[in-house]
From TrEMBL:
PROSITE patterns: CARRIER. Gene3D superfamilies: ACP-like. InterPro entries: ACP-like_sf (IPR036736), PP-bd_ACP (IPR009081). Residues 5-81 form the Carrier domain. It comes from the Bacteria. SUPFAM superfamilies: ACP-like. This is Acyl carrier protein.
């Protein structure tokens, strides 16, 4: 299992991939801004959710997160024990 820091880094990387690099992982990791405020579009959110569900085997609630920290908490809460 990934540490919280490793999970944050991986999820930030998935944000960058989901936005085709329009939003860089470093931007996501730099603060607590809402992902939409960083430039993640609705299509980017859909791609991000799909990537997270595929990689971590959890179902992500699209309304459960606005920030990277929200997403980390949501993934952690849904991880199999």
């Amino acid at each position: 299992m990934l540490t919280d820091g490793e999970l944050r880094e991986r999820l930030a990387g998935l944000v960058a991939e989901a936005t085709d690099g329009e939003v860089e992982a470093a931007e996501v990791l730099a603060g607590t801004a809402r992902l939409a405020d960083l430039g993640v579009t609705s299509l980017g959110f859909l791609r991000l959710i799909d990537a997270v569900e595929t990689e971590f085997g959890v179902e992500v609630d699209p309304g459960a997160f606005e920030t990277l920290d929200d997403l980390v908490r949501d993934v952690r809460a849904r991880e199999p024990r």
